[in-house]
Amino acid sequence: MRALDRIEQLYAIGGGPGANRPHPSAAEDAAHETTSRWLEEAGLEIEVDPDGNLMGRAGERPDVWVGSHLDTVPQGGRFDGALGVVAAIEAVERARVGSVVAFRGEEVGCIGSRALVARGVALPSAFLELHVEQGPVLERAGAPLGVVSSIAGMTRGELFVSGRPGHAGTVPMDAREDALVAAAERILEIRDAARQIPDAVATVGELDVEPGAGNVIPSRVRLSLDARAPDSERLDTLVAAIGFEPGYRTEPVELSERCREALRYEIATRGLPVVELPSGAGHDAGILAAGGVDSGMLFVRSLNGGVSHSPDELSSEDDVELAVEVLAAALGRLASSR
Ligand code: HGY
Ligand code: MN
Ligand code: MN
């Protein structure tokens, strides 16, 4: 299947283990260049906007967009983002309508899609994104596809914990102010705060320890923070409970009923179970939806218990084939509806 071959070509960029196309990087640029060639082969009119987002427009209804992102987390999976872009090319080629879009920097705060919305350019009349579920719901339900109802709100930021540097060999344990031990206690507090709020999540994914020598008691630690919840009020409660000032926040957002209906219809007419589910992951579709665009997301089942942001991310060829077919049909339906 051409889409899967192309996913493998993108996966090979940036070396292993996993997908390594962080934003910004030569690897992300290479993925955009490769995709641009595929857009040209598809006979689409190519444009790169001032923020590096890549577009490929068909002749008909270029105002209906379909796409995703090409950047990845470090050691990411082969499908996150890439699937949505290669499937968008298949869909626009099959439906002969619409525009393919590949956004920059989705993993580091949806940089490309946020910049595009902020620039006030002509936004699409509708946007569809195919994405791996990155969770276990569809696999548990025995459903190959799902329609996303809403996208969780997300905050990102950092915390600093200070201590007193000292010699690892001469400072007695009862005389230390070890910043890393204090940071460890803080991380457990953050975990417990999230556990108190239904469906909230909080993650410390990065630790920077100063001065960072094995024989020096840490003097200062930077912790990254990623805290999310399905609605604004639980997000507020979580941020307050953790006690940090987010540097970045996206509100929870409902996806467009018009797009969800088109996706539900195309799934149901193929005799497949229609499962609607919220997304705990953030997506460019959420940024466009928040910008007033009719946005919809189609999830394809993630196998291996739904693991993602990992080389173990996996979806089957049959499910991907079905997803591309439904995406193309929904694109055609949206383009002919208004
Ligand atoms: O972090 C996220 O939710 C997405 O993978 N950018
Ligand atoms: Mn993604
Ligand atoms: Mn991701």
Q: How would you sum up the global shape?
A: elongated
**What amount of the residues lies in strands?**
25-35%
In this structure, how is the largest beta sheet organized?
A: 9 strands, mixed
Q: What is the top-level CATH class of the largest domain?
A: Alpha Beta
Low-confidence stretches: none
* Mean pLDDT, all residues: 97
Approximately how much helix is present in the residues?
25-40%
| Ends apart, CA distance between termini | 32 Å
What is the architecture of the largest domain at the second tier of CATH? Answer: 3-Layer(aba) Sandwich
List SSEs in N-to-C order.
Answer: HHEEEHEHEHEEEHEEEEHEEHEHEH
Ions, cofactors, ligands: which are bound?
A: (2S)-amino(hydroxy)ethanoic acid, manganese (II) ion
Radius of gyration: 22 Å
**CATH-defined fold name of the largest domain:** Aminopeptidase
What does the oligomeric state look like here? Answer: single chain
Tally of extended strands? Answer: 16
Look at the structure and name the CATH superfamily of the largest domain: Zn peptidases
